Amino acid sequence: MKSNQPLLESYQLGDITIQNRVIMAPMTRSRADNKENAPTDIHAKYYQQRASAGLIISEGTQVSKEGVGYINTPGIHSEAQVEGWKKVTEAVHEKDGKIFAQLWHVGRMSHPYFHDGDLPLAPSAVNPKEKVYTPDGFEETVTPKEMTVSDIKRTIADFKQAAKNAKAAGFDGVEIHSSNGYLFHQFFNNSSNKRTDDYGGSILNKTRFFFEVLDEVKEIFPENKIGVRLNPSLHGAFGMEADEETIPTFDHIIKKLNDYNLAYLHLSEPFTDVSDVPFLVSDIALHYRPLYNGTLMINTNFNQERGNKVIEEGNADLVSFGKPFISNPDLPERFALNAPIAEWDEATFYVPGEKGYTDYPTYKETLKNADN
After folding, report:
1. Each residue of 85-107: pLDDT tens digit?
2. Domains and CATH numbers, the chain
3. CA 211, CA 189: separation in Å to the nearest integer?
4. Which residues are known to be catalytic?
5. Which of 17, 55, 285, 311 is the most exposed place for a label (fewest CB within 10 A)?
């Protein structure tokens, strides 16, 4: 057994004490296969099984119908959805867990199917030339509708209302999903934002929408119960093409976030090898730790050893794990025991039902079954 692991130390997250630094990353699982796209009893079971995480960040949950881009993903904009999420938060709290809601709008990473034939919204009318999954299988993205200022203001109001709904549903806080090629990221990026008004052109303008949303959300949750997720070196995926202004844009955002008393800043390491891209950063934690004064959470392909190391070296405070939490509901306990990590089944990541969702055993259950 490994003892004294940094990952297993408690941490003060705002006014919340979390039991360890093993965070469950937000992961789309596509189980809200009902007319309301509301969480159900199996969502409650799934999240409760993983309540030993220091903090659970929910799967992306849409702030409005306009924010939808994938089938069977839950929202947080209707009464039925709020009632569904109440079951989830109550189940997690029963096990003394903590859970934040990830507030999500996919922007142009969508399809008219999800919008009654209307075009998805985006900062500019630029097709990401990606594929999105609909009930008819993978469909090519389309050229989206450039958001009017009125559209932007309405979307800001949608995020504020979603934060109100998250509070009503019993979440301990919220994370603003500003990452992975979705709506806010599309505003940050020169390849997707061609605007010439107050929301495009300069770095200040490209980041304005994001900060306007953050300022509204903090009217609902205190700043120390709000997290922000960013992916600075995303390149060649989700329709995002980085350039020389990309890292300066994220440097600006992250330095400005020092003016807020956030719960955490959640950063992803590059999804692909960017070591040969001269204007991008290969080691996100190393680059941004000196720039950000608050709690830094890091993500992407971490295991037990790398997670302990990044905290021990002082380059992050928390580490979020995605796929390992799918197949290891007891991930912190496995780390404590230095137990093997169970493999996940990618074929069941996004299909309805309990298979590949709530049927992964804990390590103790595995040992018990082996003895029988």
Report:
1. 999 999 999 999 999 999 999 99
2. 6-371 (3.20.20.70)
3. 15
4. 182
5. 17
